[in-house]
């Protein structure tokens, strides 16, 4: 099973992809996470991506499609994946078709998280992660059980993304509306798009996705 999670910044793609990894043994392929790792490592891809990401703009199509193809080659042919934050443009959707066809893979579902954009700003500016193990938290929606201490690894090294400020979030949303939303009809024509209300609790959204996957 290969699926795409589609939705604007803060819609909950990463949150739900992690749950699907746990529940179905799938692998999350987040281009945002891969690009952040490249920026941190100072690779050629990271150098190209850094300023664009900090401004909330998209990284060139060929850069992200290249890293997705490489990642799939590292996984076995039977390993189901969740595309999180990819594809984001018509050119990326076309590349993904070629990448999957070349590896005898096929998309089974495109899950669109339908959300209220104003609420997303609150979700994003309140988000932080554990710098040691990567567990995600939120100032309001998901606090660690003991203040300042990661529930998973017990460390106190939390960090926030440089692009998680209101101004950059608005640019990221504009990019989503202009370049990503228009790719939905490509998948609607194939009958694989399922709309899920992304405004419920994390568990409710997860249940709705599970219901779609069990169809
Ligand atoms: P990327 O990392 O993909 O960011 P994004 O799409 O903006 O999405 P986010 O990670 O911000 O949100 P999410 O939907 O995963 O939400 P989350 O689950 O964390 O991309 C970053 C940048 O990289 C781009 O701007 C671009 O520059 C570049 N890039 C990446 N991919 C690219 C591509 N394909 N092409 C070109 N450029 C690319 O949830 C958010 C918060 O809300 C969390 O704190 C969470 O705890 C909380 N939350 C989640 N669900 C709920 C809920 N149901 N109720 C309450 N709180 C919730």
SS content category: alpha/beta
* Estimated radius of gyration: 17 Å
From the structure provided, what is the oligomeric state, counting identical versus distinct chains? single chain
- Shape descriptor reads globular
How far from one another are the termini?
13 Å
Report the major sheet. Answer: 5 strands, parallel
Number of helices: 9
Name the poorly predicted regions.
none
The level of helicity is 40-55%
| Structure summary, number of beta strands | 8
Report the bound ligands by name, code or SMILES. Answer: BIS(adenosine)-5'-pentaphosphate
State which percent range the strand residues make up. 15-25%
Strand order of the biggest β-sheet: 2-3-1-4-8
Overall pLDDT level: 95
Task: Please tag this protein with its features.
215 residues; alpha/beta; 5-stranded parallel beta sheet; 3-stranded antiparallel beta sheet; binds BIS(adenosine)-5'-pentaphosphate
Describe this structure in words.
- The chain has helices at residues 13-24, 31-41, 44-55, 61-74, 90-102, 117-125, 166-180, 184-188, 202-213; strands at 2-6, 27-30, 81-84, 107-114, 127-130, 136-138, 158-159, 193-197.
- It is globular.
- The protein is α/β, with parallel strands linked by helices and 215 residues long.
- The model has no long low-confidence stretch (mean pLDDT 95).
- The chain has a 5-stranded parallel β-sheet with strand order 2-3-1-4-8. The protein has a 3-stranded antiparallel β-sheet with strand order 6-5-7.
- The longest helix is centred in the C-terminal third of the chain and has 15 residues, at 166-180.
- 48% of the residues lie in helices and 16% in strands.
- The chain binds BIS(adenosine)-5'-pentaphosphate (AP5).
